[in-house]
Specification:
The complex is a heterotrimer. Chain A is of the alpha/beta class. Chain A has a single domain, classed as Thiamin diphosphate (ThDP)-binding fold, Pyr/PP domains (Rossmann fold, 3-Layer(aba) Sandwich). Chain A is built from ten helices and ten strands. In chain A, α5 packs across α6 (about 180-185). Chain B is built from two helices and four strands, in the order βαββαβ. Chain B is of the alpha+beta class. In chain B, the strands form two sheets. In chain B, strands 1-4 form a two-stranded antiparallel sheet. Chain B has a two-stranded antiparallel sheet with strand order 2-3. Chain B has a domain at about 20-70: Alpha-Beta Plaits. In chain B, a hairpin with a 4-residue loop joins β2 (about 30-35) and β3. Chain B has helices at about 20-25, 55-60; strands at about 5-10, 30-35, 40-45, 65-70. Chain C is of the alpha/beta class. Chain C has two domains: about 1-185, 3-Layer(aba) Sandwich (Rossmann fold); about 275-385, 3-Layer(aba) Sandwich (Rossmann fold). In chain C, α1 packs parallel to α2, α10 packs across α13 and α11 (about 320-330) crosses α12. Residues about 235-240 of chain C have low confidence and may be disordered. Classes of the chains: A alpha/beta, B alpha+beta, C alpha/beta.
Chain lengths: ~300, ~80, ~375
């Protein structure tokens, strides 16, 4: 018997997880943080997501010196600097393209992009869908805070219809993107969603994405109570955390009982569901760097060692 | 049979804390509280801590560290 | 050395390979497409990688990523593709990522005339990107030079930790010529970027410069160092302190001036030019790229007619070799600048010869038809009469 979306019924032998390690030890191992506080607003979900990413590094057991991250502009853009990994802090929206270059040039690296919703889905949408199409082994983490936070809260492609932002003070007139559906449509092999209000689940989703061979996408619902929340009746961090908690359900395919993290399971007849969490799509496909390595081996066999044609 | 009780030590960095209220709001046993005037997080009732670590995992400024306390004698566990 | 019949665009491609480039990200665009085509075949043969990206922004970004891991990387484009790339070009220059970009210039603004040739992107190469970013620009005149200059471009980009633009032309990229190429590229001397020599714990980051002329070391991703490549938060001691985004006034000033000064202090190594009979020249033709060949033809005709003409062929265009222009025109009464635009090089020559009293005129065409030596000669007669 196999479970939906190709998940194996018999799970591989569990590796020993070390999830109870105190924060300061994890910081020593993975992070490079300033003595003063982060550059995020007080209560910002980015700090929580950053914590989950660090724990996911630990859970996935990566060598942090072999991790490369890429990102562009946005509130999240400092995050890459806070880890011990290498980081390209480039221009707005190009994270997936940087990551493509990084991974192709050095396939042994673990490559992540840290991108915001505006960065990934608006200006960087093209790079995102094409990286997904290539199925290159990178992990794209999208921090969805419903707006362009760094510029002061303008509407983004993910802003829910009707909600108020700086540039939609009478209500957002455009329908929003479902980033996960976009990723599935573009050919991503692993697509998951979680929220910062479910830190253990979020950590597992990111760790699974890092371990996934192929293109992996994790949408992190990450609150911006300062800009989006304030304009939409949720002015405190906790208001938005409760909003995520109350409106989240688990996707059926994330099934194993021990991994439900007390989140209710999604059923098709439920209406008004806002966030379907869990692994939404899992599909094994040929991975690009491996396929290219085969092609390269073929080409080099025809033309041995000599550089000249 | 002796009932074991695990205890925990919570360390809050006052320089990192920015009074966002997330930790004491998520803490079900009400271990954490706040101290005026800056409303920075403090530990109010350490004995009630169950070690769920939600405050540590959710603190956006990484100001809270929860450590299990290793008790020395076996009597202390009873 | 072997004689080979080679397309100009293939010469760029072979030059990149000989220079050590092992990662190429491309996007098809006339008249630079042949470089991507050749690279798609050649890169896997030499153990490298070719990737066709979704647009020019993507290909620039991908080579930035690849170069960050220490692999020499390049791309090529033309016309509107180059315009798109300006975003990432400025980013790569200020983040000091070594890259080579070949611009096979087409004619006209906008989509322009894809199959036609021009020299209209001289100024764009230097002033196209936002912010005050410097540029290193090399312009070959012949197919054989396209090969060697591209090798030089790769070396300069590594040595200077910057982006080097090879300013080709459609006319050059799409012409076939018999060229002499080395049998074994291994004999060519290659430069490597400065890499850190201290252990990772003591490494102060990729921007740890103390002097304006410094080219700081750059750590490859995955080499054990924490390597941050960033265009913001750059300070003298590296990109570590990002708690306050953006630079202090002092750091901004230092960063921007250093980007320029590191090139100016090495101008001797960058500057390339060729002069013909300028010692006694009363009239000097200053040209670059394919049009320099017409200028040489005009010079011979002028000499045959008893006019003491000389030619200064500029090979490196940025940083602009002003001293060279001044010394070559020391005895000149007039300077003629033939170019396939409306006077971009003339502006730079005029700037170099300001207050010298030398008369500067141009021969300009924007119809993609090569300037004939006779035209230059006509202009010479006008100026001298």
């Amino acid at each position: 018997m196999s479970l939906p979306n190709g998940m194996p019924a018999t799970r591989p032998a569990k590796k020993k997880l070390d999830l109870q390690r105190p924060l300061d030890e994890l910081v020593e191992m993975y992070a490079d943080i300033p003595d003063k506080s982060f550059r995020y607003c007080p209560g910002c979900g980015l700090g929580m997501a950053q914590s989950a990413i660090m724990r996911a590094f630990h859970r996935a057991g990566v060598d942090i010196t072999k991790v490369a991250t890429a990102g562009g502009s946005g509130c999240y853009s400092v995050m890459g600097h806070y880890f011990k990994s290498s980081h390209i802090h480039g221009s707005h929206g190009r994270g997936c393209a940087y990551a493509t270059g990084l991974k192709l040039a050095r396939p042994e690296l673990t490559v992540l992009t840290l991108q915001g919703d505006g960065d990934l889905l608006a200006i960087g949408g093209n790079h995102f869908i094409h990286a997904a199409r290539r199925n290159i082994d990178i992990t794209v983490i999208c921090f969805n805070n419903y707006n362009f936070g760094d510029t002061g809260g303008q509407f983004a492609p993910t802003t829910p219809l009707g909600s108020k932002t700086d540039t939609s003070s009478l209500g957002m007139p455009e329908p929003a993107f479902d980033a996960c559906k976009l990723a599935i449509g573009a050919g991503a092999g692993f697509v998951a969603r979680s929220t910062v209000a479910h830190p253990a689940h979020l950590t597992k989703m990111i760790a699974d994405a890092i371990e996934w061979k192929g293109f992996a996408f994790v949408e992190v619902m990450q609150h911006c109570h300062v800009l989006w929340g304030r304009r939409n009746g949720m002015p405190e961090a906790m208001d938005m955390m409760r909003f995520y908690k109350d409106n989240s359900v688990l996707h059926l395919s994330t099934v194993p009982e021990e991994e439900r993290f007390d989140i209710p399971v999604y059923s098709e007849d439920e209406k008004d569901v806002k966030f379907v969490l869990g692994v939404l799509h899992r599909e094994k496909k040929p991975e690009y760097t491996e396929e290219y390595a085969k092609l390269r081996a073929k080409a080099m066999a025809k033309l041995p060692a000599k550089v000249k044609s | 049979m002796a009932k074991t009780k695990r205890s925990f030590d919570i360390e809050i960095s006052e320089t990192r804390c920015r009074s966002c209220a997330v930790c004491w709001e998520v803490c079900a046993p009400k271990v954490l509280s706040w101290k005026p005037p800056l409303n920075k997080a403090i530990v109010k009732d350490l004995a009630a801590c169950t070690g769920c670590r939600l405050c540590e995992w959710l603190c956006p400024d990484w100001a809270i560290v929860v450590r299990p306390v290793v008790l020395e004698s076996s009597e202390a566990l009873t | 050395m072997t004689k080979r019949l080679l397309l100009g665009n293939d010469a760029f491609c072979e030059g990149l390979i000989a220079g050590g480039v092992r990662f190429y990200a491309g996007y098809p665009i006339t008249p630079a497409t042949e470089i991507a085509e050749a690279m798609s075949r050649r890169m896997p043969q030499v153990g490298g990688t070719y990737v066709q990206m979704e647009d020019e922004l993507g290909s620039m970004s991908a080579i930035m990523g690849a170069s960050a891991t220490g692999v020499k990387s390049a791309t090529a484009s033309a016309g509107p593709g180059m315009a798109l790339m300006q975003n990432e070009l400025g980013q790569a220059i200020v983040a000091e990522i070594p890259l080579v970009v070949v611009n096979v210039q087409r004619a006209g603004p906008g989509i322009g005339n894809a199959t036609r040739s021009g020299q209209m992107e001289l100024m764009q190469s230097r002033y196209g990107a936002n912010g005050e970013v410097p540029a290193v620009v090399l312009a070959p005149s012949t197919v054989e030079e396209a090969f060697w200059l591209t090798v030089k471009a790769v070396n300069l980009s590594e040595m200077l930790r910057t982006v080097v633009i090879v300013l080709g032309e459609g006319l050059l990229g799409l012409q076939r010529a018999v060229v002499d190429l080395p049998d074994d590229y291994g004999e060519i001397e290659l430069a490597e970027r400065p890499r850190p020599t201290v252990p990772p714990a003591q490494y102060l980051g990729n921007y740890n410069a103390n002097e304006l002329s410094d080219v700081p070391p750059i750590a490859d991703f995955g080499s054990g160092y924490k390597s941050i490549l960033s265009s913001v938060g750059i300070s003298r001691r590296g990109g570590g302190d990002i708690s306050v985004l953006g630079l202090s006034e002092n750091d901004q000033d230092f960063t921007i001036r250093r980007l320029h000064q590191k090139l100016l202090d090495r101008k001797d190594e960058i500057t390339l030019f060729e002069e013909f009979m300028t010692d006694d020249a009363e009239i000097v033709y200053i040209a670059f790229g394919t049009q320099a060949l017409s200028a040489i033809g005009a010079m011979h005709e002028a000499r045959a007619n008893g006019i003491r003409a000389g030619v200064l062929r500029l090979i490196s265009l940025w940083p602009f070799p002003e001293e060279v222009v001044r010394s070559c025109c020391a005895k000149a009464r007039a300077v003629v600048v033939p170019e396939m635009n409306l006077g971009q090089a003339r502006l730079l020559v005029g700037n170099a010869l300001a207050n010298t009293g030398v008369k500067i005129v141009g021969v300009n065409r924007v119809d993609s038809i090569t300037i004939k030596p006779a035209q230059i000669l006509d202009r010479t007669m006008e100026v001298l009469s």
